[in-house]
């Protein structure tokens, strides 16, 4: 048997008997804001986070307007399961236009709830 590749059909294989929520499929099949920003730009911040439970890794970059203090651009690259990719994509849409304090107040439980992720996938949000 070859390596498992992720698609809407086999996301179900990763979480037996629980079909993924339509938003998870949408953000997985059509991830928003994938890519990178120039890391040396003074208004760009970069963060890297991983989930030791499964090996998922996400790089997140934001551009913050110095005048308003709001996030104007967001990019991500996630190497992980479909739920991790969908959560990253969803989050980039949510934080655009927020201040750093507002964005920092978002809890992973909120993202998991919005995407209807099962408890076994909480670490992906």
UniProtKB/TrEMBL annotation:
GO biological process: iron-sulfur cluster assembly
Name of the molecule in the record: NifU-like N terminal domain-containing protein
Keywords of the record: Iron, Metal-binding
Record bears the keyword Metal-binding: yes
UniProt keyword Magnesium, yes or no: no
Domain NIF system FeS cluster assembly NifU N-terminal: 22-125
GO molecular function, one term: iron ion binding
Alphabetized InterPro entries for the sequence: NIF_FeS_clus_asmbl_NifU_N
């Amino acid at each position: 048997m070859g390596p498992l590749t992720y698609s809407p059909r086999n996301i179900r294989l990763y979480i037996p008997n629980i079909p993924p929520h339509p938003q998870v499929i949408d953000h997985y099949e059509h991830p928003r804001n994938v890519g990178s920003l120039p890391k040396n730009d003074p208004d760009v911040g970069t963060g890297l986070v991983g989930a030791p439970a499964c090996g998922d890794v996400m790089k997140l970059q934001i551009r913050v307007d110095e005048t308003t203090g709001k996030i104007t651009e967001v990019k991500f690259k996630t190497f992980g399961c479909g739920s991790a990719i969908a959560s990253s994509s969803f989050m980039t849409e949510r934080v655009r236009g927020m201040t750093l304090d507002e964005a920092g107040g978002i809890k992973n439980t909120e993202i998991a709830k919005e995407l209807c992720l099962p408890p076994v996938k909480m670490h992906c949000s």
